[in-house]
Amino acid sequence: MASRARPGGERPAGTLDGPERGIGVMGGTFDPIHHGHLVAAEEARWQFGLERVLFVPTGQPWQKPVGVTAAEDRYLMTVIATASNPAFVVSRLEIDAPGPTYTVDTLRRLHAQLGPGYRLFFVTGADAVLQILSWKDPEEVFALAELIAATRPGHDLSGLLEAVPAAAGRVHPIRIPALAISSTDIRARVASGAPIQYLVPEGVARYIEKRGLYREPDAAGPALPADP
Ligand code: ATP
Ligand code: MG
Fold first, then answer.
1. If you measure from the C-alpha of residue 188 to the centroid of ligand 1, how many angstroms do you get, rounded to a whole number?
2. Which of 46, 70, 71, 82 lies 20 to 30 Å (CA to CA) from residue 220?
3. What torsion do the CA atoms of 220, 209, 89, 17 make, to the nearest 10 degrees?
4. What is the pLDDT of residues 130-161, one digit of tens each?
5. Which ligand has the nearest atom to the CA of 179?
6. Pocket test for ligand 1, best of 35, 182, 190 (most atoms within 8 A of CB)
7. Which carries the bigger pLDDT value, residue 204 or residue 8?
8. Which residues pair with 23 in a beta bridge?
């Protein structure tokens, strides 16, 4: 794939050569999705010439089992936030899976669904990079996907490379300007009545208001109304 120069900007870091098609995978709780997630996904898409970025909200996160908002609310906010980007797609793979889900299983399923000819790029923020060491089968994760890590300049990834030899050559740091935004902070802001406008897409802010999410610190949110 030809590399594209950005007017006035840096050249893309890792454009794909050869016939393989790149797919980004952005996993997360998305409780709620915010502009940090969206900026990281779009920058990864652009720098690596990815065909699509798949947002995969977690079903029942095994690392955050308490107080997580209903999967359906998190899924709908992710759909609202990504709807205007033609390259962004939201997957129900983990939401519809019974029980806890692991990234390694999701990546296996995605490879099985896509078939040959695709490279998967798992997009994470700086905080999640070293957490990978605590994931199920980190070696297998790196066999199935490369990692695009939205880090600060100078962020030390050497611990990861020492602990997981399979990560060598498969971790691509990118720099993005919205790293300070977090869902934890947004939930705390809603609970205390502080504004979240400009931290999340307008539609997501409206959805949070409509559903009364995050009004209590650490609350899982009100039950969803039954279908008519
Ligand atoms: P929480 O505060 O609840 O942990 P979060 O903001 O970290 O939420 P997650 O859903 O946990 O969001 O994160 C999903 C993915 O997005 C992770 O890989 C995380 O590192 C990454 N991420 C989170 N915030 C940012 C950000 N501001 N910029 C880039 N990536 C981010
Ligand atoms: Mg997080």
1. 15
2. 82
3. -90
4. 788 788 898 999 999 999 999 766 677 777 77
5. 1
6. 182
7. 204
8. 52, 120
Nearest CA to ligand 1 atom 18: 124
pTM of the entire predicted model: 0.89
Establish whether residue 183 lines the binding site of ligand 1, counting it when its CB lies within 6 angstroms of any ligand atom: yes
SS (H, E, C) the chain: CCCCCCCCCCCCCCCCCCCCEEEEEEEECCCCCCHHHHHHHHHHHHHCCCCEEEEEECCCCCCCCCCCCCHHHHHHHHHHHHCCCCCEEECCCCCCCCCCCCHHHHHHHHHHHHCCCEEEEEEEEHHHHHHHHHCCCHHHHHHHEEEEEECCCCCCCHHHHHHCHHHCCCEEEECCCCCCCCHHHHHHHHHHCCCCECCECHHHHHHHHHHCCCCCCCCCCCCCCCCC
What tokens were used for 191? 């609970």
Distance, CA of 208 to CA of 191 (rounded, Å): 11
pLDDT at 1 over 60: no
